[in-house]
Amino acid sequence: xxxxxxxxxxxxxxxxxxxAAALAGASGLRAAEPAPGAMSRVVLVRRGDxxxxxxxxxxxxxxxxxxxxxxxxxxxxxxxxxxRLVAPRDVVGIKSNAWRHLPTPPALEEAIRGEVIAxxxxxxxxxxxxxxxxxxxxxxxxxxxxxxxxMRTHHxxxxxxxxxxxxxxxxxxxxxxxxxxxxxxAIWRLPEVEGKVRxxxxxxxxxxxxxxxxxxxxxxxxxxxxxxILGVDPVAxxxxxxxxxxxxxxxxxxxxxxxxxxxxxxxxxxERYGLGVSDPERxxxxxxxxxxxxxx
Amino acid sequence: MVKAAVAWAIGIVxxxxxxxxxxxxxxxxxxxxxxxxxxxxxxxxWRAAGEWEAYDRExxxxxxxxxxxxxxxxxxxxxxxxxYSGPEGEPDIVVDLFELxxxxxxxGAFTHDRDGEVAAIGQGALFRNGWLSFWQGPWFGSIYAxxxxxxxxxxxxxxxxxxxxxxxVEGELPQLLAALPAExxxxxxxxFLRSQEILNTVHYLGFDNPFGLGSEVEAVVGxxxxxxxxxxxxxxxxxxxxxATLAEARAAGxxxxxxxxxxILAAVLxxxxxxxxxxxIARPFGGAP
Lengths: 296, 289
Prior knowledge:
The structure holds two protein chains of two kinds.
Chain A: H1 8-13, H2 17-22, E1 40-46, H3 59-74, H4 78-85, E2 92-95, H5 106-118, E3 126-129, H6 137-140, E4 144-154, E5 158-160, H7 178-181, H8 184-187, E6 197-208, E7 227-231, H9 234-253, H10 265-271, E8 283-288
Parallel strand pairs in A: 1-8, 2-3, 2-4, 4-6
Antiparallel strand pairs in A: 1-7, 4-5, 6-7
Chain B: H1 2-23, H2 31-38, E1 42-43, E2 46-48, E3 53-55, H3 60-63, H4 68-72, E4 78-85, E5 93-99, H5 103-111, E6 117-119, E7 125-128, E8 131-136, E9 139-145, H6 150-167, E10 191-193, H7 196-202, E11 218-226, E12 229-237, H8 241-251, E13 257-261, E14 264-272, H9 276-281
Antiparallel strand pairs in B: 1-2, 2-4, 3-4, 4-5, 5-9, 6-7, 7-8, 8-9, 10-11, 11-12, 12-14, 13-14
């Protein structure tokens, strides 16, 4: 994969559309609920130089990817895009994922935090957390959430997704594991979440396409994809990531090997809980950077 | 009179001795002690990092993200865990030993993932992608290198052998396995389970639990080759015939074919092509009690 960067012309060309229309200003932001027939915009950004030899991301490259994608999502310059996502009066929880084998990269957490503060939110009103959010004072009074996690296969939900990342809001996450986590979308209707998630960032730097053992991890089943998928609509973001994982499994195993159990919580989050759209025909996929072996 | 008094006194002493023996509990050694002392703290160049940790049915969720229900579904009592730090450039190795409700459950947990090469460890073992799984008595073992190398594979095997030996006790296979017809059964495809969620990982049926699987309702499932097609055959044993009859009615429409014999219900799932369901379901049950 070659190195690629988003030019000013690229992001202006990617501007407008449903995402920008939906995001008229920070005060009017809500979780994505596209109108019937409306398209959901999702941005896939990749860079060939984002991963170092040790597999960790290069922080500055990652920050640029994030900003390029946010700009393309909302159709304005990066700084203006962040000001649309959060307002100075907001209290912002950055919901990350601490799974030890494949956590949200600290460099990405820090990049998001830095941009939120640059948009005018006071540092005291910004926190990054995962498993401690029920006790975190910033999350307890959060008016806005930025949701970010790596994509991976998951034993009960099929895939660990942005939708699933909100499960730590409930005291007993295992109560949502039934029927392949079919009801995860319900969590997004709880007061702690509903209407607060301004942006979803699905980390596709080294996604995991298969799992083994109690800890469901092996280095053999991650690969250097070097991407991020961003969107306001969590269903569209996750559905896009799921297509890439499905294709990677087909290539790796040499035959169709469906994700088990089926990650139907993504589709159901849209159909049952109105959180977005999963139909690729209704997803406007904006591609930034090199797309060799993008698998989508 | 004196003789009678002596006899009475002797009787009192004997009874007292017997009572004291009865009150003395038999010396029971916790298998965990044998494991902790039997699995060496240093294997090849891998060294135990800290003490063994123990997790129960609640604390396991904090240790394993997303996979704990597999072991809870097999009646997990506890999990003993130890991490080994590898030499420079080598991956860490994580040892997890789960004590389950019975040896049948340990076999069930072992059969949850049947990929891999057979290894001669414990009562059955498989190795793939740095991960060794085995069962021994009521224990399911997982020895996992966070990345496979030649050296880590050897260390994983050595730790697994030591752990299985330390557990020691032998267990029996689930009796219900005998109910699976031998004809057409693909080798190493049998699984033992008691949970709809586990069955869903073999063949997805949703959340309704049509077969009523649970702690008192156990099942085996095997993969069959029939003509040019294939299917899963599920055999479920119920506490009584009435429960099996009820499940038969509830599962109608879920399975490609159903057949009940007393308290045992068989179902063909995922038949491809669907016509082979009738042929497979007609095969006689094996000798399960």
